C-alpha cells in the first residue's frame, strides 16, 4: 500500500514539474499586463484529459503557480493557482467517459472539455486581472494571448489519442 502511495505522489510531482518546465517555453504579449502565451497550457490539458480531474487540477494549478513564483509573474501566482485548479478539474471531469469508464477516449467530450476550460480560464484571468492587478479595460488586452494558449492547447486533441494508442500497444506486448 505504501509503495502505491509513493508512486502516486511521485507521478503527480513529475506532472507538476512537466507543466512548470513547459510554461517557460512561451512569448510575452507586450500590450497586456499579464499576457504570456506558453506551452504549459498544452501540457496541463493533456494531463487533465488523459489522467483525470485530480491530477489535472493539481498539475495545472501548482505547476503554473510555481512558474509564476519562479519568474517575473509573481503577482499572478494566486490567480493562476485558483484558475488553473478549476480548469484542470473541469477538463478532467468532462473528459471522463462514463459509458466506457475511461479517461480521455471520447473525442467529443475532449473537445467540449477544452472549450469549457478555455471559457473558465478567460473569465477567471479577466476578473483576477481586473480586480487585483489592473482595470477592467486593461484586462481586455490579455484576452487574445489567453485565447492563443487554448488554440495551442487544442494540440491535446492530437496527443491524447496517440498516448492511449501507445499505452495499449505497450500493454499488449
List the helices and strands and how they pair.
Blueprint: H1 2-23, E1 26-28, E2 36-38, H2 40-51, H3 53-70, H4 77-94, E3 96-97, E4 102-103, H5 107-133, H6 136-139, H7 143-153, H8 156-172
Antiparallel strand pairs: 1-2, 3-4
What would you note in describing this structure?
By secondary structure, the chain is mostly helical. It has one domain (2-172): Arp2/3 complex 21 kDa subunit ARPC3 (Orthogonal Bundle). The protein contains eight helices and four strands. The strands form two sheets. Strands 1-2 form a two-stranded antiparallel sheet. A two-stranded antiparallel sheet has the order 3-4. The longest helix is centred in the C-terminal third of the chain and has 27 residues, at 107-133. The mean pLDDT is 91.
Give descriptors for this structure:
about 170 residues; mainly alpha; Arp2/3 complex 21 kDa subunit ARPC3; two-stranded antiparallel sheet; about 75% helix; about 5% strand; globular
Estimate percent helicity.
over 70%
- Alpha carbon gap, first and last residue: 27 Å
Order of helices and strands: HEEHHHEEHHHH
> pLDDT under 50 segments (min length 5)?
none
Report the total helices. Answer: 8
As a percent range, the share of strand residues is: 5-15%
CATH topology: Arp2/3 complex 21 kDa subunit ARPC3
Number of strands: 4
User: How is the biggest beta sheet arranged?
Assistant: 2 strands, antiparallel
The total number of structural domains is 1
CATH C-level label = Mainly Alpha
The Cα radius of gyration reads 16 Å
**Can you list the strand order of the major beta sheet?**
1-2
Structural class: mainly alpha
Q: What would CATH call the architecture? A: Orthogonal Bundle
Shape: globular
Mean pLDDT: 91
Amino acid at each position: 500500500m505504501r509503495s502505491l502511495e509513493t508512486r502516486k505522489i511521485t507521478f503527480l510531482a513529475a506532472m507538476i514539474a512537466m507543466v512548470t518546465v513547459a510554461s517557460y517555453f512561451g512569448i510575452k504579449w507586450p500590450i497586456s499586463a499579464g499576457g504570456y502565451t506558453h506551452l504549459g497550457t498544452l501540457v496541463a490539458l493533456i494531463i487533465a484529459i488523459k489522467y483525470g480531474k485530480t491530477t489535472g487540477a493539481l498539475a495545472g494549478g501548482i505547476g503554473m503557480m510555481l512558474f509564476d513564483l519562479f519568474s517575473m509573474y509573481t503577482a499572478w501566482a494566486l490567480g493562476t493557482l485558483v484558475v488553473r485548479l478549476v480548469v484542470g478539474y473541469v477538463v478532467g471531469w468532462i473528459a471522463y467517459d462514463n459509458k466506457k469508464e475511461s479517461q480521455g477516449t471520447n473525442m467529443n467530450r475532449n473537445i467540449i472539455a477544452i472549450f469549457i476550460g478555455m471559457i473558465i480560464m478567460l473569465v477567471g484571468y479577466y476578473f483576477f486581472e481586473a480586480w487585483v492587478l489592473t482595470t477592467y479595460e486593461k484586462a481586455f488586452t490579455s484576452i487574445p494571448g489567453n485565447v492563443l494558449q487554448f488554440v495551442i492547447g487544442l494540440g491535446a486533441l492530437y496527443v491524447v489519442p496517440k498516448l492511449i494508442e501507445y499505452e495499449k500497444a505497450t500493454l499488449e506486448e
